[in-house]
User: Fold this.
Amino acid sequence: MSFYEHVFIMRQDLSNTQAEALIEEFSNVLSANGGSVVEQEYWGVKTMAYKVNKNRKGHYAFLKTDAPSAAVAEMERLMALHEDVMRTLTIRVKGHEEGPSVQMQKRDDRADRGERRERRS
Assistant:
């Protein structure tokens, strides 16, 4: 089995409980097809850089999975058919990093970024 990271955006007019139920639904699809969800994160409603399907905001979700490619393909197929899912991104990774994703970390906890450089005028 391979490691994957999935990010998907759901419509903004869903409630938080509906968005989390949708995350659970896609997690169950992976589990039913022989995969497992290592970690899941609900990032909340965020503003997008441009309009997608006439929406300016969306519910963001992040999944770390260990699944065969057939399970991932089935989940992506169901996401594409679901009317509440606007965009998806799946990336195969060599391994999962420990701890929360960068999106969930506090700004002060991001010590590995280094110092900011002064801008030259």
